[in-house]
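Hi R.,

Quick one: here's the CMP-sialic acid transporter isoform X1 sequence you asked about.
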Amino acid sequence: MSPPKENVSLLFKLYCLTVMTLVAATYTVALRYTRTVETELYFSTTAVCITEVIKLFLSVGILAKETGSLARLITSLKENVLGSPKELLKLSVPSLVYALQNNMAFVALSNLDAAVYQVTYQLKIPCTALCTVLMLSRSLSKLQWFSVFMLCGGVTLVQWKPAQATKVQVEQNPWLGFGAIAVAVLCSGFAGVYFEKVLKSSDTSLWVRNIQLYLSGIVVTLFGVYMSEGAQVLEKGFFYGYTYCVWFVIFLASVGGLYTSVVVKYTDNIMKGFSAAAAIVLSTVASVILFGLQITVTFSLGALLVCISIYLYGLPRQDTTKIQPSETKSSKERLVTV
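And here's the predicted structure, written out as C-alpha cells:
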C-alpha cells in the first residue's frame, strides 16, 4: 500500500483516491443494507470500536512487513509507541476532536430542521480548505475556492431529502443547534488537517502514526460505548445483532480508514473531501439499482455539480500536497492566489 519512493507518482495518488472512493461507496451501500434489511440492529458504537481494533491490527501487520522482521517490529513499537507517550498524546487530539464533532452533530440534528442541518453541515468542506490554508501554509486559487464551494452545494443537493410533516412536535433550540453545527464544522476541518500536519511534518512511518492514532481511538470509542449504549450492551452483549453482513461493513470501514490515511499522507484533506463526495454519488446510484431508490432532480443536479467541481479542482496547478514554509507568504496571499 505504501509507495517505494519518496516522490509519489500521480498514478499511485489516483490509485489511492480510486480505491478509497470505491470502498467508501461499497461501505455506504452495505451499511444501508444492514439498516434496512437486517432484522436485529447491532450497536453502532460497538461497531465503531471494533473497527478501530481491526485498523490497529492491520496497521501492525503492514508495519511488520515494512520492518522486515519480528525483532525490528518489536523495537519500532517500543520506541515509537510504548516509549513515546508524548507522541501518543499528540495523536490522541484527532480522536478526541472527532468524538466532540460527532456529539455536536447529534446536538445540532436534535435542534435544527433536517434540511437546515444538511445544508449547514456541508460547510465542513470549505472549513477543511480554510484549515489547510491556515495550518499548512498552502494557497488555493480562486478557481479552486470556487470548486470547493461548488462541491459543498453539490453534496447538499445529493443528500437533500424533503422535510416530512409529523404530528409529533419536538422542542428545538435553533441557537443551540447553530452553535453545535459551528463547533462540529470547525472540529471536522481542524482534526483532519491536524492529522495531515502530523503525518507530513516528520519522517515517522505512516503505520506507526496509525497505530498511535488507533490506540487512542480505541480508548475514546470504548468510552463512547459506555456513555451511549452501556446498559444495553451489558444486557444484550457486545456483539448483539452481528451478522456476516455487519462484519463485512466493519471490514470495509477498516480498509477505508487505512486508505484514508494513505490519501491524506500523499495527497491532502481537500482531495479526500472530493473523493468522499464522489463516493456519496456512486453509493446513491448503486442504491437505486439495489434498493429501488428514486433519482430526483435535486440529486441529478447535485451529482452534476460534484462532477464539475472535481474537474475544476483537478485542473493543472501547483503542487499543494506538501507543507510549505510558513514565512514565504502572508495569510492574505495564501487565502487567494490567482
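The first helix runs from residue 10 to 36.

Cheers,
M.
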